[in-house]
Amino acid sequence: MTTTDQTTVTNPNLLVSRERLRGSAKRWRRHGIPTVAKKAEEPAARGVFGPGSVAWDVLLHPAVIVFQSPAQFILQLTYKPVVAGVRDWDPISKKAHRGELTLFDVFDRGQRNSGIHAPMWLGDRDTATRVAQHLIRVHEKVAGDVIDVGHPELGGYQANSPRDSMWAALTEMHSMLWVYERLGFKGFRRTGRLTPERRDRYIAEVSEYCKLFPHDEEELPKSMADLKKLYAKYDDLFGVTKTLATIPATGENFHTLWMESIKKNAHPSQRKVKFQLFFQEGLFKMLAMAAVSGKTRKNSGLTPRQEKKVLAARVALLPLVWLVQQPPFERYFLRMMWGPDAVELVNDARKIHAEAKRR
Question: Which residues form the ER-bound oxygenase mpaB/mpaB'/Rubber oxygenase catalytic domain (predicted)?
Answer without folding.
Answer: 56-247
